[in-house]
Amino acid sequence: MITLLSGTNRPGSNTHLVTTLIERMYFQLGVPCQVLDLADLPPEIFLPSSYAEKPAAFAPFAEAILGSDGVVIVTPEYNGSFPGVLKYFIDMLPFPASFENRPVCFVGLAAGMWGALRSVEQLQHILGYRNAHLFPSRVFIPGVGQVLKEGQIQDAELVERLRKQAVGFTDFVRRLKA
After folding, report:
1. Checking DSSP bridges between strand 148-149 and strand 152-153, what pairing results, if any?
2. How does DSSP assign 107-166, residue by residue?
3. Domain count along the chain
4. CB 74 within 8 A of CB 4
5. Does 113 score more than 90 pLDDT?
6. Terminal-to-terminal C-alpha distance of the chain
7. Which residue pairs from 56-60 have beta carbons closer than 8 angstroms and sit at least 24 positions apart in sequence?
8. pLDDT of residue 151
9. Residue numbers of the domain that contains 57
């Protein structure tokens, strides 16, 4: 099972939309996957007491990561980095089991011309520290507001890059699992 992580809790985000489009690609490839949307995090995870004891409502989120064969992180760029909620989510997951030897793949999107390059590079450092297996083929989506129209990606070359990434990541996950 591949987990697609929508890396923001912003309502109505482009990140969520792109994540669901990627989900369709995996389904078309016949690859079991699930979307984990940070917009659905339980409010009690943000209480200071969560550092000592995770609320029961957070368990399905942790289990989704722990039970996945690989994780695709779809992240926007906010102020030159990835969203704080994504870092907090990573911090709340069990250490080291959540990412230790787990394949991880990245898709970045931004309004600007670099398509969340900085966000993805920062996440690569963090997940490298967590001993994840980083899939080298990243996809960046610059000018996301112009690329997404009527709920679809209008750039055929970009759609093909995302499809090739999904095929490659699926193979990467299978090889590492074997």
Report:
1. antiparallel
2. EEE-SSTTTTHHHHHHHHHHHHHTT-EE-S--EEE-SHHHHEETTEE--HHHHHHHHHHH
3. 1
4. yes
5. no
6. 14
7. 58/92
8. 86
9. 2-177
Q: Render pLDDT for 24-76 as a digit per residue (tens, 0 to 9).
A: 999 999 999 999 999 999 999 999 999 999 999 999 999 999 999 999 999 99
The predicted model scores a pTM of: 0.96
pLDDT digits (tens, 9 = 90+) for 137-153: 999 999 998 998 888 98
Can you give the CATH number for the domain in which 40 is found?
Answer: 3.40.50.360
Alpha carbon separation from 33 to 97, 118, 169 (Å, rounded): 20, 26, 12
Given the DSSP bridges, would you call strands 70-76 and 103-109 parallel, antiparallel or unpaired? parallel
CA distance 147 to 18: 10
Q: Phi, psi at residue 12, to the nearest 5°?
A: 65, 30
Quick one: tokens of 165?
A: 């990434």
Backbone angles phi, psi at 142, to 5 degrees: -80, 155
CA 40 to chain centre: 14
Neighbours of 99 (CB within 10 A): 24
Q: Are 18 and 144 in contact (CB under 8 A)?
A: yes
